Amino acid sequence: MKNLKRLSLFALLLSSGVLMAQEEANDTTQIIVPTKIIVDTMANADNLVAVEGQEAQLAYNSGVDFFAAGKYKEAVSQFTAAIDYNADFAKAYLNRGSALFQMNALTQAAEDLSKALEIDETLASAYYMLGIIYLQKEDYDQAKSSFAKASEMKYDNPKIDYFLGELAFMAGEYKEAVKYFDMALKNDKQNAMIFNDRASSHRQLNDFESAIADYTMAIELDKSNAMYYSNRGSVYRLMEDYDNAIKDYSMALEIDDDYKLARNNRGVSYMYLEKYDEAIQDFEEVLEVDRDYAYAYNNLGLVYYKMRDYDKAIDNYTKAIALNPDYGYAYLHRGSAKEMLRKFDDACNDWRKALELGVTQAETYLIYCNKED
Amino acid sequence: MILKRTLLYCLVVLIGSLFVQPAFAQLQDVEINKKEFKVRKSGFKEAWKAVKEADALYGKGNTAGYRQSLVFYEEGAKYNNKNAELNYKLGVCYMFDSQMTKAEKSFEKAYEINPYAAHDLIYLLGQTYQVNCKIDKAIASYSEFVNKYQSFGDKDFDERIMSSAKRKIQECNTAKEMIKHPARVFIDNLGPAINTEFSEYGPVITTDESVLVFTSRREGTTGDERDIDDYKFYEDLYTSTKDAQGRWSRAVNMRDLNTVGHDASIGMSYDGQVLYTFNGTPNGTVLYSELEGSEWSKPKEMSKHINTKAHETSASISSDNKIFYFVSNREKDDYGMKSFGGKDIYYSVKNEKGKWGKVRNLGSAVNTKYDEEACFIHPDGVTMYFSSKGHKTMGGYDIFKTVRNEDGIWSEAVNLGYPVNTPSDDVFFVMAGSGRFGYYSTVKETGYGEQDIYRITFLGPEKLMVHAVEDNLMASLNSTITDKVVEQEVEIETVRLTLLKGTVTDAISGEPIKADIEIVDNEKDEIVTLTNSNSATGKYMLSLPSGKNYGISVKAEGYLFHSENFNIPAATGYQEVIKDVILSKVGVGTKIVLKNIFFDYDKSTLRSESYPELNRLQKLLESYPNMRIEIGGHTDNKGSLKYNTDLSQARSKAVVDYLVNNGISRSRLEFKGYAYLQPIDTNDTDEGRQQNRRVEFKVLSIN
Fold first, then answer.
1. Are B557 and B583 in contact (CB under 8 A)?
2. Hey, are the CB atoms on B469 and A265 less than 8 Å from each other?
3. What is the tens place of the pLDDT at every residue in A323-365?
4. Burial code of A47-56, b = ≥16 C-beta within 10 A, e = fewer?
């Protein structure tokens, strides 16, 4: 799944007007990079001749060629040579960072980009790229300040709105996120990813109707992406329309049979339809994909509880707890299953643990428990 | 009383019997035709004989007749079970014998052969369906009955029958709804130590569930006779106690109280010291008996306000012994307010002289035009459980709950829900102090026979179940989002009650003592409850509602009083506190801690909450006119010795001054400040320091 996500990011970057300019310039569609950065650096390359040494410039130019040909390793070597000739060659750092980014060496890429900015703090594109790297590393504060810096410097990239939208989303500012995605869509009307993300923001705002409409747009624009189906399925699930939810999850699973989240969510939907056999099968298959997925054990526990097979429910909750000792709800549920087996003292102990782990609901269950000595 | 009550256990709806009679009149004889006995001709004679005998008994029109005729009809049916009338009569007999599954089958068979074999066949078929929880079928039968009903020519009667059938349909709709959303309970049979193949019902308990008293109609009843009305053994009272493992002892017959006739349990004080019974006097009278040591006193009749010519059944007394609730079918209360219809719940308040005052109807929130029965006031003083055929019943009597607010208004009655309540009669429910466990009797196929006593464990609302889902919501990020978990606003019914119990014993011999136990609301200087410990066991039990500071004094003749203080915050839920009290005989050198004396912080000013305790001390000195005592003040070890000596001395002097101002000679009183030099507990904890800060008195001389 992780690889799939990364490709999605590149796909997003590809699908911009900037890429078209790049295509015209280089007559190639091979490059799947933050293209605007390359355009920037190359556009300014001529200006550097007078300043930099001949050898440094040659190596740099060669690096750019390799980069354009998608030969990042070679590009990195050439940019390194340029830096060897000229230790203050800011754009060589910048573009070596770009090449490393393409090779998924995010930490090294970030180091190069920071070095480029140390030498030349006006390189807005470096801030922009750093923003993307921090986003990938889930360091949302750093990402936000990097994008803000790029934006301050009038760095003109339509994708900034998109990334700021995602950051607002991650900060729980969903209304703000919708605004950013609206702006991003103005520049990029056919982008499924932006529709997906705006849909997700609507979902979080409980505007399920708008969410369905946007996910549906995303699916129409890109029918091969399992995530869009799964996400729409989840909105149906939240609307308690489990039949439609199951249909969407099933579509997602046709595209990607190992899609753990979609299968787990389908199991939950089956559970609410009281189709317990199907639910159990889904959760067990999730565990075949990921043996350590505590959530699937919790969900299996819920199904067995509903089937009044409290022993099996307890077994599964116990497995969930073994995988995640801080799983408060698994304790809460296990206590409730023990209660049904009249193991009241054991139940109380589990509820106490759940409360300790922050499940406030447990407090009301403890009323009838004997006070601990 | 007993006939009435047995009828209700038999699950038969009285309205039904209104027109059972005319229908029966036409069916005095079940026709037995020779042509129906082609295979075994001799069978005709036997069948004819059996049915004739049955008809004679059936014709009595009472429970005993129906039950006794049953075997003969069964005999007749062996020869010919294709006779509609015979099956109808079998059905009626089964109903009166509480065999509802068989009743349903017989009525079904009668219906198949001839739906009009009796005027009320379809109605009774509906009723057996209802009782057996076949609700859709019941609705269909009642509807058919309504649609095809043919008048008897008596308009009033027709109207009553129609409204009864329509109400049945309403009950069925309620039942459907309740069965769809069952209450979360465990219902457990109390087991063979309590239940037998005969009927057990009317359980009453001490609020800590340690003692159970109930009624049974089992073999071995006092006098060993059966009631001619229903051909069952007369009721006797039985009792059982629970051991530490929660097991009930084998129930024993309460020989002190039982008579040859009917003796039934209808209520018990929460501490088990007073039992309210019913014996089969013609009018139906409430009696009470007190536990004196290990013996029950001879039952006495309750006051004339409570017992009238009408039937009084069921009784419950508030835990402060001040309000008596009971059920009566009287026409109006002592203030002229008319009954709402059938049996209603009434109450009487004890006046200042300790007599039961005029009786009042409990009002329309509880009483309906239908029968109410079996009231039970919880020791919290505000929650009442009762049975009613009105309100939203699923059929017959259902158990309801109502709560009195601060203005004295009873809330709308709430049905305890299925499976506690069923379309049959569900009555005589009592709730333990904890609010977690209830007791009642019901008929279950899995039981030991007829009615058995069951314990209900209330599990509260459905527990929260949080499914685990994740979604990858941002297309270019790996982060997953889980559903927002909405924790439920669950209203858990909490009983805000402290049950204080223990034993009172002699300090030297360890023998149990019958002592007067007085609970005082310290702030109001008001006696909340007066009770005694039992002379044979020394046991006592007290129920203290939360939200007050209580002073408890334990007094017995020849002993120095003992005091305790309990502060129970308003938010305290149900708790059981065991406090064993040891009393010391009045003797030189005996020391007693006065636990209800309070001073302002860091001062020697007595707070007014101390007066009840000081007055007790004053009375002690008055009853021993030559007694000399020393009042000793003690502190914890915070602060300097000098400071603490001064404070403890000033405080003990304040106590002495109070006594002197109230007429005790100063020459009999000494005071001393001991500071922290005589601790009775550790000074390392808050609790220990609290114990150490105290006022004691010591007897210096008696004569």
1. no
2. yes
3. 999 999 999 999 999 999 999 999 999 999 999 999 999 988 8
4. ebeeebeeeb
> DSSP H helical segments within B536-676, as ranges?
611-623, 641-661
A283 within 8 A of A294, measured Cβ to Cβ? no
Structure tokens at B449: 């026979």
Which residues of A, range 161-190, sit inside 8 Å of B by Cβ? Answer: 166, 169-170
Name the residue among B478, B485, B573 with its Cβ closest to that of A5: B478
Q: Cβ(B416)–Cβ(B183) under 8 Å?
A: yes
Report the 10 Å Cβ neighbour count for A304.
Answer: 21
Tens-digit pLDDT profile for residues A168-185: 999 999 999 999 999 999
Is the torsion defined by CA of B76, B82, B85, B87 positive or negative? positive
Q: Is there a contact between A43 and A20 (Cβ–Cβ < 8 Å)?
A: no
Nearest one of B1, B542, B50 to B281, comparing CA atoms: B1
CA distance B99 to B92: 10
Cα(B179)–Cα(B177) distance, rounded to whole angstroms? 6
B479 contact residues in A (CB cutoff 8 A): 138, 170
The residue type of A363 is E
* DSSP element (H, E) containing B75: helix B63-79
B600: which 2 tokens? Answer: 């302002």
Tell me if chain A has a CB within 8 Å of the CB of B480.
yes
Q: Which amino acid is at A328?
A: G
The CA radius of gyration of chain B, in Å to the nearest whole number, is 32
Tell me whether residues B488 and A197 touch, CB distance under 8 A: no
Comparing alpha-carbon positions, the chain B residue that sits nearest to A333 is B465
| Interface pTM, i.e. ipTM | 0.80
Cβ–Cβ of A368/B434 closer than 8 Å?
yes
pLDDT at B32: 52
**Strands (DSSP E) found in A174-237:** none
DSSP-assigned letter for residue A293:
-
Closest by alpha carbon to B74, among B63, B58, B60, B62?
A: B58
Which residues in chain A are closer than 8 Å to B471, comparing Cβ atoms? 200, 230-231, 234, 261, 265
| Amino acid letter, B620 | L
Which residue from A265, A339, A361 is facing B487, i.e. has the nearest CB?
A361
Contact yes or no for B487 and A360 at CB 8 A:
yes
Q: Which of B23, B101, B9, B109 is nearest to B58 (CA)?
A: B23
Structure tokens at B110: 């009668």
How many Cα atoms occupy the beta-carbon half-sphere of B651 within 13 Å?
Answer: 29
Side chain identity, residue B216: S
At residue A124, φ and ψ (nearest 5 deg) are -60, -35
Rounded to two decimals, what is the model's pTM? Answer: 0.77
Beta-carbon separation of A342 and B575 below 8 A: no
Chain A CB within 8 Å of residue B494 CB: yes
- Direct distance between the N- and C-terminal alpha carbons of chain A, in angstroms, rounded to an integer: 49
Nearest to B402 by CA among B389, B415, B390: B415
d(C-alpha A345, C-alpha A350), whole Å: 9
Instruction: Measure CB to CB from residue B469 to each of A192, A264, A333 and give the nearest one.
Output: A264
Chain A partners of B186 at a C-beta cutoff of 8 Å? Answer: 342
pLDDT digits over B403-446, tens only? 999 899 999 999 999 999 999 888 899 999 988 999 999 888 88
Whole-angstrom distance, CA of residue B255 vs CA of residue B272: 17
C-alpha triplet A40, A42, A47: angle, nearest 5°: 100
* Tokens coding B51: 């049915």
